[in-house]
Amino acid sequence: MKHLLALAVLAASAATGVHAQDFGFAGREFSVDLGVGVDVGPDYPGSDDAEAGPWLIWRNAGFGQPGSNLREGFAISPSFGTVGERDASDNDDLAGMEDIDRAYELGLRVSYGAGPVTAFGSVRKGFDGHEGLTGEVGARYRTELSDRVTLWSGLSLGYGDGDYNGTYFGVTPDEAIPGRPAYDIGGGFNKASITFEAQYALTENTALLGEIEYGKLIGDAADSPVVQDEYQPAIKFGVVRKFSFGF
Questions:
Q1: Terminal CA-to-CA distance of the chain, rounded, Å?
Q2: CA 125: distance to chain centroid?
Q3: Cut 0.85: pTM above it
């Protein structure tokens, strides 16, 4: 896993450098906010129970003028994620279902910034708990409230391939019982989310970060007999530091 992470960072850095040259970003600055924090949200997709887990923060990657907080143009960066374990013994509604280990996700994120608006798309490959592909597409809007306080509001759609959706929302014939029929699900969009994020600058390069996400399962995922709650809220807190690289 560590080797994969290192390769992804190196690949993203190399790809970023290519974009800088090919799209006329010479003389600009690539910056990104990196940090760690705590993520409190559903312990697995569709759960009505919350769990605290690690939050690996990679935010606001992109090109801009030195000293500016606006990210302009295309940028490629790593994308990370985790999904909590699902233990059938912890919930009567899951009796007879297979347990699912915690999943770790690694992939890439592509974004395009134009003024205060950033559009993005990400794709990640799962390991351990699931081995499918998942990610998001969406957009965020930046608002500067003061020299220290910045807000982002965003909309996104989450998706998963057949392996991902089948792992968390499918029911095999062996797992079917009265009231929980077998359920075969393919790939597609599975969640719509609204997010609000606030950053408070402690110093020029270090800040506190908080995020509230209001998510709702959609499509075939929402109709799964194993979903206990379609609404999937989450709250996150962390510390980030800005890193900049000139071209």
A1: 30
A2: 12
A3: no
Task: Give the strands of the sheet with 188-201, arranged side by side.
Answer: 50-64, 29-42, 231-246, 206-217, 188-201, 149-160, 133-144, 117-128, 103-114, 73-83
Report residue 169 as tokens. Answer: 């929302």
Give the DSSP H/E element, type plus range, for residue 117. strand 117-128
Residues 29-41 have pLDDT tens digits of: 778 889 999 999 9
Residue 154 · residue 138 · CB < 8 Å: yes
Backbone phi, psi, residue 203, to 5°: -135, -175
User: From CA 67, how far away is CA 50, in angstroms rounded?
Assistant: 39
DSSP letter for each residue of 40-93 = EEESSTT-SSEEEEEEEEEEEEEEE-TT----BEEEEEEEEEEE--B-GGG-GG
Q: Are the beta carbons of 150 and 69 closer than 8 angstroms?
A: yes
Residue 23, both tokens: 């799209």
To which H or E segment does residue 37 belong? strand 29-42
Q: What is the pLDDT of residues 37-70, one digit of tens each?
A: 999 999 899 999 898 988 888 887 777 655 556 6
Distance CA 57, CA 119 (A): 18
The single-letter DSSP state of residue 94 is G
The two structure tokens encoding residue 43: 């312990």
